[in-house]
Amino acid sequence: MSDPIVTELRDTLDGRWADLRRQAREELSAEWMLAPNGLSIAEHRELTTKSLQRIADEGYGRVGFPTAFGGEFDYAASCVLFEMQALGDLSLLVKVGVQFGLFGGAVARLGTERHHKAYLEDIMTAKLLGSFAMTEVGHGSNVQALETTATYDDSTHELIIDTPTESAVKTYIGNAAKDARMAVVFAQLRTEDGTDGTDGGHRGHGVHAVLVPVRDEAGNPLPGVTIGDNGVKGGLPGVDNGTFAFEQVRVPKDNLLDAFGGIGEDGSYVSSIDNPDRRFFTMLGTLVRGRVCVGGGSGAAAKKALAIAIRYGSSRRQFSAPGAEQENVILDYLAHQRNLLPRLAKAYALSFAQNAVTERLQELQGEGAEPDQEGQRELESRVAGLKAVTTWHALDTIQACREACGGAGYMAENQLVQMHADVDVFATFEGDNTVLLQLAAKGLLTDYKEMWGDLDAMGMVGKIAGQLGDRLVERTAGRAGLQRLIDTATGRDDDSATDSLSWALSMFEQRAEHVLETLGNRLRKATKDNAFELFNAAQDHVLFAARAHIDRCVLEAALEAHEGMTAGAAKDLLGRVLTLYALSSIEQDKAWFIEHGRINTTRSRAVTASVNDLCRELRPHALTLVDALGIPDELITAPIAQ
Amino acid sequence: MSDPIVTELRDTLDGRWADLRRQAREELSAEWMLAPNGLSIAEHRELTTKSLQRIADEGYGRVGFPTAFGGEFDYAASCVLFEMQALGDLSLLVKVGVQFGLFGGAVARLGTERHHKAYLEDIMTAKLLGSFAMTEVGHGSNVQALETTATYDDSTHELIIDTPTESAVKTYIGNAAKDARMAVVFAQLRTEDGTDGTDGGHRGHGVHAVLVPVRDEAGNPLPGVTIGDNGVKGGLPGVDNGTFAFEQVRVPKDNLLDAFGGIGEDGSYVSSIDNPDRRFFTMLGTLVRGRVCVGGGSGAAAKKALAIAIRYGSSRRQFSAPGAEQENVILDYLAHQRNLLPRLAKAYALSFAQNAVTERLQELQGEGAEPDQEGQRELESRVAGLKAVTTWHALDTIQACREACGGAGYMAENQLVQMHADVDVFATFEGDNTVLLQLAAKGLLTDYKEMWGDLDAMGMVGKIAGQLGDRLVERTAGRAGLQRLIDTATGRDDDSATDSLSWALSMFEQRAEHVLETLGNRLRKATKDNAFELFNAAQDHVLFAARAHIDRCVLEAALEAHEGMTAGAAKDLLGRVLTLYALSSIEQDKAWFIEHGRINTTRSRAVTASVNDLCRELRPHALTLVDALGIPDELITAPIAQ
Asked: Taking every annotated instance into account, which residue ranges of this chain make up the domain Acyl-CoA oxidase C-alpha1 (chains A, B) (predicted)?
């Protein structure tokens, strides 16, 4: 850490919760953060439960919970902690995420004071282990269609939890197979009030969450609860994913997590939000932190993979130039640089975008935050897209790192293969990436205040905002730090140096705006009869619009952080890293830029040449850039990276 | 199989060894071809050894060995069998490949009659299990730099096998950790004859292969042999990869596999090939079958993944159109089609290219084949590139299939995740893909007869063939079946329908030729002083040239098979599949096509629209196309694909 460039870059990457990151770097010990290779599933699960307890014993379970109930560091800090914990065993990370984030977070955010008093202390200390039981066999992405029922029996003041069909069985539920004593069960809430005799004499209020005890103190399933084990998965061997089925299981009505809708003294349903769709998405919106964490965690894992591969690439030699005494260091080959350095640059850029959504989450949901519905919807939309982009980046990067290390990369001891296997599921859990990108696009197309309803075709095409352009301009202009950059680029695209950041930013903005505008024009033609066909035919356009938007958010966040640095060598170096990120993205879409008259073919070729030049320029700084990622040496045990 | 379109497509895909494929479909039983999930490594290894024995007992060990020594079906048929076996557990596949292909193949091809008589029967029956010990800790891709020595002691007529350094330890060697009793050890051969006193009084003859007993009958390492275990890997848990180190281990000189170079009665080195580089690459060239197999095996695995994901996508429902009674089938979404159908189309196209190299291998190396050095070099070059393209296609496809199946895709029982973990290493073993693509490019740039020497910069840039264009034209014209197609396309690129196969072929040819020509012009400027820098700066160009060439070979092979079909519904369907393959490839490189004036931006957009149209058109045929892949139902146990 004596290199001042490393220190300055690290501080810039660390952002607002730098102190928590530093504390974690010192305290998160490899002794209990890492798992040995080759454990059986039973052994790995056992170890993970033990390490979860250790993390709670160290007090880390308290990060992110309300301070009034013994929590620490306030809400969004837990996302930063999650990133740091992602540098260890990812089974432990997910177990931690299930216990404190999903289970604990649902109790904290969907529950009210009586739940907080009764459960939070035991949750933070891991005395009460729990599950977050949302997904069902037949219902993954489309949560509104869940079939599990929670029917209110006013005669006993109880809710009856039931699994009516095979497709309603809860599945892939973390903590279920072995540890959970309680579960937050998402179910269709039904009451008797105001019934018109249909629906079995009940009125449905949509999906709500209910606390359901699932095991007794001895660990046996409670009566009416059938628990299954999902068995062997692609990764995360230490996480006990399983299934829950409920047969008329009765719980007190107080177990309903009723922050957004509850049952009154008279047995009737009460909620401050009348529209059921809006209520549902407001409830889900409070859980956006899970997606922030998954994005951040996968991004952190990708950084660790890059650290391993770049260290190896800086020492491994293969093939010699004629007359040379030694073989060449493989990172001196352009192909190797091309494989690793643009991905390293993207890892940097994504870090800043991750910091930005974490800070925004704190502003909107931290203690004392004022409700801001429009801000909340914008955040949800951005987080959905960023989660998709970051988890795919992580999968792609870890795989590239694995291959860049050859046979050695395939050995478990070098830490890359288990990481890929673990991160794999991040692309489809906490929201399937393809669905999330569509959600992000939807947020751009519709006014945020209209954004209720899920991803059915009409929801997407029905309420397209009138003035897309205006809103985007407004959003960008809000970022004063970037205004200078934007100004310098305007109108002189062809004159700017290819490696100018202001030119790149202008390209990112033009891409995002044009793709969105043309998408809006396309979807505006929808009628009730053709909505699905029209939407479906444009689905690739929808996904591209979302990605282009997120790429722009990423570059903007990165450039804001860069602008905030003091002029000097570290800032210059980061500038080149971000230029590599930006040009790689432009290169990837260069057909689009040519097709839409944004660059000519001469410039298009120059972009590729600049990417190569930047790889060459950054090569001597590769180890510096890796050091600045701040991964504790203790957690990099790969023999090839020592 | 009653659908005549399925039958006709399957027969077309099956190609020359259709009878062997049919036999394998009937006889390769799930009972011993599949492994349960969740085995410990020890259990999986044990099972794999048992299943290997079973395969030998069924007589499949004989496929590919010389009929004079009890072999069957002749040489290249073993590649077809390997493809079929890749539909089962891939640990077993690799174990089979190590025993019969690498170990047995080396004895058959590098050894002479005394080795064949002594060992082949026991190898084919798996009575003698063995290893192929080439890779060393410090020497993966650059095999010529191996450090292990085989020093001839004329006083005892023995070879002394020695591991002089840590980096010379043999590693990642299949069969080593548990089963091998013998190993083909690649080592620097040294003799005493003609020594000038340097090199410890020995003369070096380059890398040769020696049969070295490594374990006694009881399974214990023999004196001087240290055996290690590579332990947990990213996949292939049933394969016992390990390490060998030798301390002055003596074996009779008869153990030298001396087909290309041996030790005479007088203790001096004798070889029919004077140039040591040429000798080395001739020896390696006889082992090209391994790469043919790895490509074919990974391609077969990708087909199985596609079958699982497409079957699931054809029944899984999520999200409903407004007013619809049921949710939509997910394969009806364009995004889902886009994820799966172009990959299915590529799987088809690659099958034909795989058949073509297998047939060519038989012509060049089958029994009774006449030596054809130029043909052999062309095959090696094509196989190198095709192996890279196919293994990457497989990794990418299996991952896309896994994600397309959501959480279910992550469950081991659905057969996708272990497949990805297993195939992963295919990208870097039997030649690292990036290195192999460079080898393929080198074959194109230099006259095949000059193609000796490895991938150092001078080797690549030193001997660029004078008339690249001529040679390419000649090669293409040799394929009479395609001439008609080529003719119809010539000179009317902009008039052709975007979905015309002849236009697509013309694009593939223009891409391959132009990229190669410009690469040649670039590298021709090399001098002794700048060769490395020049080569390195062009490395991305080199890789692109190789890929463009292979893509062209793939399309040509596929179109030849298509041309050979009788007109009708099956031929029409395959035509559309191949068009989707071709247009997806053009779409991927469309920036290049625009930059180089091959298409204008209007046409470029039309390509994307055509890909979408073809996805929609092929959607109703997806299950037919999957059935035609001919994967035995018994081997698809994934619950989601039933």
From this structure: 285-445
Whether the CB-CB separation of A400 and A308 falls below 8 Å is answered with no
CATH superfamily for A4-124 is Acyl-CoA dehydrogenase/oxidase, N-terminal domain (1.10.540.10)
* Residue B454 near chain A (CB below 8 Å): yes
Measure the CA–CA gap between A420 and A394, rounded to whole angstroms: 8
CA-CA distance, A423 to A416, in Å (whole number)? 11
Give start and end residues of each alpha helix (H) in B366-479.
373-404, 406-409, 417-424, 433-445, 457-461, 468-477
Residues of A in contact with B413 (CB under 8 A): 231-232
- Residues B520, B522, B523, B526: is their CA dihedral positive or negative? positive
pLDDT band at A478 (very low <50, low <70, confident <90, very high): very low
**According to CATH, where is 1.20.140.10 located in chain B?**
289-637
Q: Which fold has domain B289-637?
A: Butyryl-CoA Dehydrogenase, subunit A; domain 3 (1.20.140)
Q: Looking at the complex, does the CB of residue B522 fall below 8 Å from at least one CB of chain A? A: no
How confident is the model over B361-378, as pLDDT tens digits?
A: 999 999 999 989 889 999
Q: Could you tell me if A617 lies within 8 Å of chain B, comparing CB atoms?
A: no
Query: What was the pLDDT predicted at A176?
Result: 98
Is the per-residue pLDDT at A458 higher than 70?
Answer: no
Q: Above 80 in pLDDT, residue B198?
A: no
Residue B21 has pLDDT above 80, yes or no: yes
- Alpha-carbon span B632 to B640, nearest angstrom: 16
What is the distance between the alpha carbons of residues B2 and B600, in angstroms, rounded to a whole number?
A: 45
The three-state secondary structure class of A203 is: strand
| CA diameter of chain B | 91
Tens of pLDDT, residues A336-371:
999 999 999 999 999 999 999 999 999 999 999 998
Tell me if chain B has a CB within 8 Å of the CB of A463: no
Digit-coded pLDDT (tens) for A558-578 = 999 999 999 999 999 999 999
Chain A partners within 8 Å of B594 (Cβ): 591, 594-595, 601, 604
Query: Could you tell me the fold of the domain covering A289-633?
Result: Butyryl-CoA Dehydrogenase, subunit A; domain 3 (1.20.140)
Q: Give the count of beta carbons closer than 10 Å to the beta carbon of residue A437.
A: 27
Q: Model confidence over A392-441: pLDDT tens digits?
A: 999 999 999 999 999 999 999 999 999 999 999 999 999 999 999 999 99
| Residues B369, B363 contacting (CB under 8 angstroms) | yes
pLDDT of residue A147: 97
For the stretch B114-158, pLDDT in tens is: 999 999 999 999 999 999 999 999 999 999 999 999 999 999 999
**Residue A639's CB: how many other CB atoms inside 10 A?**
11
Its CATH class, for the domain covering B130-285, is: mainly beta
Which option is the CATH number for A132-275: 2.40.110.10, 1.10.3720.10, 3.40.50.300, 2.40.110.20? 2.40.110.10
Structure tokens, A450: 């209209």
Give the list of residues 6+ apart from residue A52 with CB closer than 8 angstroms, or none: A92, A95, A96, A99, A126, A129
**What mean pLDDT is predicted for residues B538-566?**
96
Grade residue B247 by pLDDT with cuts at 50, 70 and 90: very high
For chain A positions 24-53, those within 8 Å of chain B (CB to CB) are: 37-38, 40-41
Read off the tokens for A625: 């850039």
Check residue A477 and give its pLDDT. 42
As separate numbers, helices (DSSP H) first and strands (DSSP E) second, chain A gives 26, 11
Phi, psi of B174 (to 5 degrees): -65, 145
Structure tokens at A558: 């990165």
Delimit the CATH 2.40.110.10 region(s) of chain A: 132-275
Residues of chain B with CATH 1.10.540.10: 4-124
Q: What is the mean pLDDT of residues B22-47?
A: 96
